[in-house]
Design a protein that fits this description.
Layout lengths: L1 H5 L7 E5 L17 H18 L3 H9 L19 H4 L5 E6 L3 H16 L3 E2 L8 E6 L4 H20 L8 E6 L12 E5 L1 E2 L10 H5 L3 E2 L2 H13 L4 E5 L7 E2 L28 E2 H11 L4 E5 L8 H9 L6 E3 L7 H7 L5 H14 L4 E8 L6 H14 L3 E6 L7 H5 L6 H24 L5 E9 L6 E5 L5 E5 L3 E3 L2 E6 L6 E9 L3 E10 L1 H4 L13
Parallel strand pairs: 2-3, 2-4, 4-5, 6-9, 9-12, 13-14, 14-15, 18-22, 19-22
Antiparallel strand pairs: 1-5, 7-8, 10-11, 16-17, 16-21, 17-18, 19-20, 21-22
The structure holds iron/sulfur cluster.
Length: 535
């Protein structure tokens, strides 16, 4: 793993460690009357110009692998004049990460941490004791970018108040474009199996920031999952921008002329692809590694759910019955403008097909409010889709136009901000209402929960996730252990616990624990008296 960290892929990480918070030195003083947003834009401009000439992650790689030795790699660069190799050494300084965005960014944070750790840094979860603060982002959404600039303004105050007796506080932004990810933490782990996107949805900047789709070889993924299993990890999430578009072309014998099966009624923006080892094959292999290890995957594209994938999810006890199905809009007209490759009808048919193929499946989705040209009627169609599908989890955003995208060049961002926000609020309200109803169907059932740790709100409660990835809170009490009848135990992170659900909201389930069990036992007859229905 460390070897792979030092190789090429990380060369494309843009790294900015702002020595002594240089970017902030141009902030208006605290007495300045300019609005916060304007300050943010000023900093943004400053940041962008600095990014071009700033140090890269290679500087950290070099000091992480061999601080005193020069790399012969042509990619190795001399540190910029304001940042010496010596300064890059951690010397027990404490680094605090603040990660913005998706799970991919969380993973990338772990890579950055593993490198800094080797350079002698310590990690802290306490902002106040940090010597280095790193904000981690990929700036996919304009709102996320704005959040970073606003956060920098807050951190400036922390830096100013810092006592002179302490080492100066350094604040940096890590802008991510990492291609290969590997990390593990507690009982769960997430692994990048592919990166990039070929779909070119008109609103999306991902193909420009993450590049074209490329997948890792199946063999190397399996090797890593086996290692995680040996370490006792209980859950692996396979990650990718279009995770189910996975295609391993590294083995010549599988590069046949067999065309790719798409979900019925779905099309692509690119020429159809052929051959390679597909996602169904990977999922099959990964789920065979350890029957006690849960397998999740995110984020999929709805077009890549052929029957073989759905059947596998249904058949394998350890593949979670949870599917993220980003819809983005409930209007076929808007979907066409977004270049999503499906109509509302095709999407709804897919939802029905998935629910028939995987009874009890939990569904989540993404929606954008106020895309270019979205009328009130289009918006109401999205509202009706939320009601019709009744998702368990949702991620909803107001549209913000990004440069480079097709929409930027060809469409008008013509829905007023106020209207976008009003529509977003309406979507959120409907989503919550429907999700509560969907989650309430679990009340009275026993569900298998993988314990993550103590609840953040109460030291006497445990928190874990059910098969559908919903948070489940339950009191930490003594339990019967299914593997050792008569033995009373307390559940720990990494344990599977059967929990009887007693209450549900749009985001959380509550219940009480019935027994500690195993994934295999939970699907066997032993638990049938409690399990109606389990998933
Ligand atoms: S929104 Fe579209 S372009 Fe963006 S990552 Fe998803 S599939 Fe690719």
């Amino acid at each position: 793993m460390q070897g792979s960290l030092r190789r090429g892929p990380l060369a494309c990480v843009s790294w900015l460690l702002l020595k002594n918070c240089r970017a902030h030195s141009r902030f208006p003083s605290s007495g300045c009357s300019s609005p916060e947003r304007q300050q943010g834009h000023a900093v943004s401009k400053d940041f962008n110009s600095r990014l071009v000439t700033g140090p890269t992650f290679q500087h950290f790689l070099r000091s992480a692998s061999a601080p005193s030795k020069k790399l012969s790699s042509p990619e190795a660069e001399d540190p910029p004049p304001y940042l010496t190799e010596d300064e890059l050494l951690g010397r027990q300084r404490k680094v605090y990460f603040e990660t913005y965005g998706c799970q991919m960014n969380v993973n990338d944070t772990e890579i950055a941490w593993s490198v800094l750790h080797k350079s002698g840094y310590l990690r802290t979860r306490n902002l106040q004791e940090a010597d280095v603060i790193l904000l981690v982002t990929c700036s996919i959404r304009e709102k996320a970018e704005q959040t970073i600039w606003n956060r920098l303004l807050q951190l400036k105050a922390l830096k100013t108040k810092r006592p002179r007796s302490r080492v100066p506080l350094k604040i940096g932004i890590l802008v991510l474009k990492i291609q290969k990810v590997c990390f593990c933490a507690s009982a769960t782990s997430a692994w990048s199996i592919m990166r990039g996107c070929d779909n070119m949805c008109s609103y999306c900047i991902v193909p420009f920031t993450r590049g074209r789709e490329r997948s890792r070889p199946v063999a190397s993924i399996l090797e890593e999952v086996k290692k995680l299993s040996e370490q006792g990890l209980k859950e692996v999430t396979l990650l990718g921008q279009n995770v189910n578009s996975f295609r391993d072309n590294s083995e010549v014998q599988f590069n046949s002329a067999v065309s790719t099966n798409l979900s019925r009624g779905f099309t692509t923006n690119y020429k159809s692809k052929q051959g390679g080892l597909r996602f169904a094959h990977l999922l099959d292999q990964v789920s065979r590694v350890d029957p006690e290890m849960r397998i999740r995957f995110t984020s999929p594209h709805p077009k890549d759910f052929p029957d073989e994938v759905l059947q596998l999810i249904h058949e394998r006890d350890n593949i979670c019955k949870q599917i993220h199905l980003p819809a983005q809009s409930g209007s076929s007209r808007v979907l066409e403008a977004m270049r999503r490759g499906y109509s509302r009808e095709a999407y709804v048919n897919l939802v029905h097909h998935i629910r028939e193929s995987i009874p009890g499946v939990s569904l989540s989705s993404d929606f954008i409010a106020g895309f270019c040209g979205e009328t009130e009627d289009d918006h109401l169609q999205t509202v009706s889709l939320l009601r019709e599908v009744q998702y368990n989890t949702g991620f909803l955003f107001a549209y913000s136009m990004r440069q480079k995208t097709r929409a930027y060049h060809r469409l008008q961002d013509d829905v007023p901000e106020k209207v976008k926000l009003r529509r977003l609020e309406e979507l959120i309200a409907v989503f919550r209402e429907e999700a509560t109803k969907a989650n309430e169907t679990s009340v009275g059932c026993a569900q298998l929960v993988l314990v993550e740790g103590l609840s953040k709100r109460s030291a006497t409660d445990l928190c874990g996730r059910n098969d559908g990835n919903l948070k489940v809170i339950f009191p930490c009490t003594e339990l019967e252990d299914v593997s050792s009848p008569g033995l009373k135990v307390r559940a720990h992170p990494g344990d599977y616990v059967l929990v009887k659900i007693t209450a549900a909201s749009s985001q959380t389930l509550k219940g009480h624990a019935l027994c500690r069990t195993t994934l295999k036992n939970s699907s066997a007859d032993y638990c049938s008296e409690w399990m109606a229905p389990l998933h």
